[in-house]
Amino acid sequence: MIIGRLLREHRNIDLLLVALQRELEIFEEGHRPDYEVIRAIISYFEVYPEVYHHPQEDLIFSKLKRCDPDGAALVGDLAHEHQEVIDRLHHFARAIDGVLADREVFRQDVGKIVRDFIVCERHHMMWEERDFFPAAVAALSAQDWAEVASALTDHGDPLFSETAEAASDALRAHILQLEQEAEAERSALAFSSALAGNPRHNAEREGPH
Fold first, then answer.
1. Which residues belong to any copy of the Hemerythrin-like domain (predicted)?
2. Phi and psi of 170, rounded to 5°?
3. How many domains does the chain have?
4. Closest by alpha carbon to 187, among 36, 44, 22, 35?
5. What is the domain-level CATH number for residue 44?
6. CA dist 59 → 102, 140, 144, 174, 188 (Å)
7. pTM of this prediction?
8. What is the mean pLDDT of each run of 10 residues along the chain (209 residues)?
9. Domain span at residue 86?
10. Nearest to 130 by CA among 50, 10, 2
């Protein structure tokens, strides 16, 4: 079912938010995060939610407004919500670009921008799952869902195509792999630093004088 696919996409998006939150923690501790991971996450959000995920939801919402205007009004303004998501993403991307370009930016300001992005993304998905999706499931008929599915596949670059989904999965897997490698490298450095600062370990390595 289409809603099931959207829910899976939400779970996949949250995996990336977890990785981004970890990089934010590194940044806020005063260390250098893995900017390759952060830029890859930004690229993912610029393409898949913005180009594929949100248009699916917008189409469903247009059906909901036709089938149940009162229910749609209770849900709220989805188009406005999606525009705010885009605006937050661009604000986030500009902040990271500023850091990478060595422009004078305050660390706490960048941290707040990234944290706001994470919190608001999660709130947005929770709102959709709590209010929008149930309203759509209750109001749309089987014919409505068939028309939604048809609209999403009747063009050259279908939103529900296996190619688009496979590309999304591959990019997400690549980002999560980058995050795992960054965590492994940080753990190794922390372990080496701990050993270097351990007098007993150093004495054992040097042996008796």
1. 2-136
2. -65, -45
3. 1
4. 22
5. 1.20.120
6. 41, 12, 10, 30, 48
7. 0.78
8. 89 90 91 89 86 89 96 94 95 93 82 96 97 97 92 49 66 79 80 68 50
9. 2-206
10. 10
